[in-house]
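Job type: complex structure
Entries:
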Amino acid sequence: MSERAPASASFTVGVRAHNLTRMSDTALFGPDNLPYGLFSTPDSPGHRRLGIRYGDDVLDAGAAALAFGSAHADVLQQPSLNPLMAAGRSVWRAVRAESRSWLTEDVHRETAARHLLPLSGVRLHLPFEVADYVDFYASEQHATNVGRIFRPDDEALTPNWKHLPIGYHGRAGTVVVSGTPVVRPQGQRKPPNEPLPLFGPSRRLDIEAEVGFVVGAPSELGAQVGLDGFRDHVFGVTLLNDWSARDLQAWEYVPLGPFLGKSFATSVSPWITPLEALDAARVAPPARDLPLLPYLDDSAEGLAEGGLDLRLTVRLNGHVIAEPPFSTMYWTAAQQLAHLTVNGASLRTGDLYASGTVSGPEPAQFGSLLELTWGGREPLELPDGKRTFLEDGDVVTLTAWCPGPAGTRLGLGEVTGEVRPAVGA
Amino acid sequence: MSERAPASASFTVGVRAHNLTRMSDTALFGPDNLPYGLFSTPDSPGHRRLGIRYGDDVLDAGAAALAFGSAHADVLQQPSLNPLMAAGRSVWRAVRAESRSWLTEDVHRETAARHLLPLSGVRLHLPFEVADYVDFYASEQHATNVGRIFRPDDEALTPNWKHLPIGYHGRAGTVVVSGTPVVRPQGQRKPPNEPLPLFGPSRRLDIEAEVGFVVGAPSELGAQVGLDGFRDHVFGVTLLNDWSARDLQAWEYVPLGPFLGKSFATSVSPWITPLEALDAARVAPPARDLPLLPYLDDSAEGLAEGGLDLRLTVRLNGHVIAEPPFSTMYWTAAQQLAHLTVNGASLRTGDLYASGTVSGPEPAQFGSLLELTWGGREPLELPDGKRTFLEDGDVVTLTAWCPGPAGTRLGLGEVTGEVRPAVGA
């Protein structure tokens, strides 16, 4: 069969059963993608099940594993992805190969079809239990833009920026799945001409288009995970919207970093794409301007293609407002993991770390409204009006695709969220 | 019986069974204290049980609850404190009253004694599963000292400091129980006279003496927990050592805050003291220099005694090096919780937030070596030699007591840790 689309009997089951609104998505979730998620059905809403996306369907992975007598049925029958994530790379590979064969091989298709459900008929949940959440700051263009906007009197990049991937811990408990409404946060802001801070709903609510990496295999306290350990520990990839209240952030972030300006919500895809699915998207990161310390030096063979050619799209109320290219990120996910653990910090199953806002060199490639409107000074002209920061009712959607094997394209699970008015406002 | 010490039949069981090394501790953990922990015994090391400390004994709470036919036996028979913590304030009160009666009333003492084990014979574990960990910066003296040492050319306090309790998220996965060795972290540091950062073990490993607050009852995303909600959500209190690598921290922390300089280990007591036990220690915080926004204004009746008169002691290799007074903290734990949630961020059972380093106005009250040695420039003279920052093999121990009912004293569970050499060093 063709590698380009899951045009199989099993796939047809889903297509018949529901209304396809975005036909192009079908091909992006073919047999070379197979991301994992967690779903429930309306007739048994409390029963969360592990699912594998295939075109516009979802495979009930636990039920299929039982039907096929899989040796990995135990981890596939859990109400969370975490047990599969914790099982390690050899199990990830085996389960992926197995489920691909169920969905694509003639002898299995009829059995598999019995465990496929149309995506439109299921509810998708946060796919894994988040342990620690770390947010990096790995785009040179983004860090330069933010430096120019927030600290116009200083050098745009701080002196440490090209020596280490700067990051900080965020709030794991407010990581939410795509589709969760985002309530406009309240808090303190201090306009420059006011003598005292004001309290109220944020007036500069923003998005950050990011890529998140999900840790599967844990590490011991005191052990460092080197660059070559990245693929043994990282299970997969998600899109991530790091919602940001710029006015709260600007007032609070010196000297200990962002806190309430970020902690109200972080949205992730309902689908985690296995790292292995992204092999055809591996690219070399940009040339480094300064020599790196050995634990971050990825110039050696086998490590040099640490970048990923993911093409992101940011839509505001359906209109494309940016197309950030992940391939331009200065620091790679492997470098971020090596840095995160170089002090002996341990990893847990479910640790999530995000790239930081993805911004390419062109203005149409900036991954936040802060940059797209240059601090709110240059509004975006959209068909339904001007925008600086987000208004109540706005819907932001992140999508992405990347090259797959043999000229195909793979999609990452989209992340969407609607802004709701502040509580009591 | 006297309120001052648990001089009861049940208590004698423990005294007979093991060697008391610190007799004074006995009185600090009497019937008005009763902190919770998690223990196992050598004959069944995998069986973690909820314990209540009583003098130098630990009550096997689950077994006692069964024996007494407690209505709360379910939450007391868990291998974690989290279910009890999640059960809410009315259950916390009921369990506390019940266990106090088991330990102190004549009719119950004989039964209770069968479920008391000498503390010296059990192993203590991390008492709860940490959800998110936040570290605040609430001591004016500490923030002033750090500002002077790290940013000598600027105002010591940033302009936001007296308007909001500054805090940031730390790494929950590396919160460890007292007694866990702390491996010296490696990382990047950049001495001012070096052109490039150097890599290696931290040379400025430090401690921070803090008090941690443990959230029991969760809150919904989007809901704010006001000052008056503090006692409904916070289960109890622990001592906390926020180990800090000052050289890593100084190089990395601009612009997004501390990361690897803190994330390698944070030590907490094995005992969580219920908030209710600290009622006699409530005091008014210091006078505020600036008016506060309403969500932080605790001048109203019922909120004004938001401070706690906890007297901390920091020992280095057994020698007292500081006695930080928690009553001097500018921001209270209730204000920190109100701030943490004012943007709608939700709370989870197991959220831990720490006060920040406790430093009083006198040099002998500073809660970190950074301050005690003024950035390493004024070494401490100890009986076994000079110290600026920690050396391998050093043992740091935090203890604290506070006023209890009727002139008694209550102790908090101590936090201790030994510094081990860097990996491969």
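Summary: Confidence is low (pLDDT under 50) at residues 1-23 of chain A. Residues 9-125 of chain A form a domain with the SH3 type barrels. fold (CATH 2.30.30.230).
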